[in-house]
Amino acid sequence: MAQPLNFVLNVPETPEEHSSQEPSPYDENEVHDSFHQLIQEQSQWVAEEGLELQQREPGAGGPKTSGCGQHALPGPEDALAHSAATLRVLASMPSRTIGRSRGAVICQYYNRSVRLRRRVSRPELKGVGRSARPSLRLYDLELDPAALQEEEKRFLLVKELEGLPVAQRNHMLRGMPLGLAEKRCLREETQTPKEKQRGRQGPHGLFPCCGRLRDACVLALHNLGLGLLGGLHALRPWHYALKQIGGQFGSSVLSYFLFLKTLLAFNALLLLPLLAFIVGVQAAFPPPAPPGSVPSFTGLELLTGGGRFTHTVLYYGYYSNSTVSQPCVPPSGGGQCSREADSLPYSMPLAYLFTVGLAFFITCITLVYSMSHSFGESYRVGSTSGVHAVTVFCSWDHKVTQRRASRLQHDNIRTHLKELLAEWQRRRGSQSACGRLRRVAVRGLVWLLSLGTTLGCTVAVYAFSELMIKSPVSVEQEGALLALPVVVCLLNLGAPYLFRCLAALERHDSPVLEVYVAVCRNLILKMVILGILCYHWLGRRVGTLKDQCWENFVGQELYRLMVLDFIFVLLDTLFGELVWRLISEKQLKRREKPEFDIAGNVLELIYGQTLTWLGVLFSPLLPAIQIVKLLLIFYVKKTSLRANCQAPRRPWLASHMSTVFISLLCFPSFLGAAVFLCFAVWRVKPSSTCGPFRSLNSMYEAGKVWVRHLEEAGPRVSWLPWVHRYLVENTFPVYLVSALLLAVIYLHIQVVKGQRRVICLLKEQISNEGEDKVFLINKLHSVYERKERSRAGRTQEAERLTDDPDAW
């Protein structure tokens, strides 16, 4: 440990000291200069002490010098020992002594308190009489023992703290690296009698009993609030379970559940405006009942979505094309309602169109923000060098005291270290040229087989959809409507298993690359199948259902696909994980459990979310069904993961997986659903028998009809038609907003490039500073060696002259 530095206050005497009036410590310039001078003197004394080299005996095993007498700075590979003088100088550096010496801490905070007190407004020193100034004469400045010096510095610190406001004083005491007992003593010594009396009575002048009662009430309310917050955290399905999953199975499996959590938030945000402006309003003002009897509930509606569900707020056809307004109450003297009473009624067609558009716009903004935020978190500017040391030495949270939490944190750190080491080993691996060519050929063949499988599934879906059009299903055969969704779900379930068998031939070195390839193949399969289904709904079914409500049919098809997709997910979990584990343990006598299929499960989530976005226009309550589905999937997958799956055999770091999942959700999924809905709104003619747009040629015409009503409503809302005409129908604002968005993106890219360039320059500067320090230390080392050799030579010469007087 370095020797603590002893600072002695040495105020130079002035001619005025010989007079009857004494100098004042409030003359801060003198006090500050004297402290600064003493610090320089002590630093110079330490440096001179370090330069006194100790004589080493020859052959003591010390490091040998070269011809020039210089030593290279020891590096991590060859750690050479410096001389004792060099080590003493290094140990005397301020960065290595501050915090070790109690006197140094008190002196440091004394200087800081002086600077803070200067900011407090007070009368100038010239206006204060010398008799009113405190005296330094009582301080025994000539005494040199360490205890007296420390007491002197402590007394000065207390004096300076007394001149500070209470808030600044308490803040400085909290920040001092001293013990609690020392801080309490300093606080008691700096308190005035009035503050001590106020402390005995309480902060608000209360008696001790009242103060204790108030503190007990506050503590009880605080504990109640913490309990309620803990209850709210426990209500979330991802609070403690996600930590356990990350610690036991790693970040790769955790990325799936984090993505599921993100989808829950997106669906909740999508559902709120739909419930507020469409479903809630129509439920409060229901349309007239349709002619004929309403079918009774049979239970098959839970699978098909038809029957009794057709005449509910679940589907597009239930919503009316009328206006919703408060009933008009005529005046008591007779007459008609005034024009202001019903000038702007609530138009259901307009509310339906604008609410769906607003919900999609909010989802788009949130999705883009989440994607950019995820990019910023995973693809940080700079390198990841030193992450192993940071994980080893800086990962533990010392505030964790419970055994359960500490074990969980231990598992998280251990799994993270496994992933980092596995990633480091994969980067160091090398392959031969022949091995690379062989793997490229195998992977090309596997890709051809995968694309052929996707093409076959697409042809099968198209052929079966055409068969369903040629053989229509009657109302009594409602169960036959499940045929096309069952075929689609079977293909979506079977093709990924075939892709997994083909991927075993590729033998990817990196599990990350293997997951990315599997995600890409499954994504191509599902998006192509959804494209065929969209063509089937808007290109073929609209023409065959002219006298029926084709919007209800599309909504029911999407509902059936969602329900059957959930059922097949449960079957896959049961037979693909549970049954396979039982067969592996009972029949094959293996202890290994199956691994969690990240690619297949993530693509199932993306596929289900795409179905939700496609069906929002035709079934406004599909996001609510998706939320229930995601919650059930979370609990089923969590239970199956703990019981039937094991951690990945090859640990890998999923640092970018969440970003990739959000990107896939944005571009193929959300963008495709937005194009589908825009085509349905602008190009497809609505049904003439149901829905809020039954009397229009397109859903977009509802805006034009609303504008005409606004023009007739009066001059108070004349600005709204202008906004619709020049900002909605005109394409120039769209191009302007797009240009501004591109400009912002370009500027953001340039800022990131500039930050990367600055970081590179700072790294280079840090490297140069390190080289400068190495050079200076080597120079100092050589100076010490030369001085030691010269001193040894003079000593030997003196001894020789003493032994041989004739040499004089």
Defining traits:
single chain, 808 residues, mainly alpha, two-stranded antiparallel sheet, 25 helices, 66% helix, extended, disordered N terminus
Can you describe this structure in just a few lines?
With 808 residues, the chain is mainly alpha-helical.
Description of the molecule:
There is one protein chain. This protein is mainly alpha-helical and 808 residues long. The protein has 25 helices and 2 strands. The protein has a domain at 239-287 and 300-324 and 345-425 and 437-697. The protein has helices at 28-51, 84-91, 94-97, 102-119, 146-162, 166-175, 180-190, 193-201, 208-235, 241-249, 251-284, 301-304, 348-378, 387-394, 403-428, 433-470, 483-506, 511-544, 550-586, 598-615, 622-644, 657-682, 701-713, 719-729, 732-803; strands at residues 323-324, 346-347. Helix content is 66%, strand content 0%. The model is unreliable at 1-39, 45-80, 94-100, 120-144 and 339-343 (pLDDT under 50). One of its GO terms (cellular component) is plasma membrane.
Major sheet characteristics: 2 strands, antiparallel
Beta strand count: 2
Average pLDDT for all residues: 76
Strand order of the largest sheet: 1-2
Q: Structural class from helices and strands? A: mainly alpha
Give helix and strand order, one letter per element, not per position. HHHHHHHHHHHHEEHHHHHHHHHHHHH
Q: What is the gyration radius calculated from CA atoms?
A: 40 Å
DSSP helix fraction: 55-70%
Beta-strand portion reads under 5%
Principal-axes geometry comes out as: extended
* Quaternary form: single chain
Poorly predicted residue ranges: 1-39, 45-80, 94-100, 120-144, 339-343
Pfam family, one: TMC
Family: Belongs to the TMC family.
Subcellular location: Membrane
Membrane topology: Multi-pass membrane protein
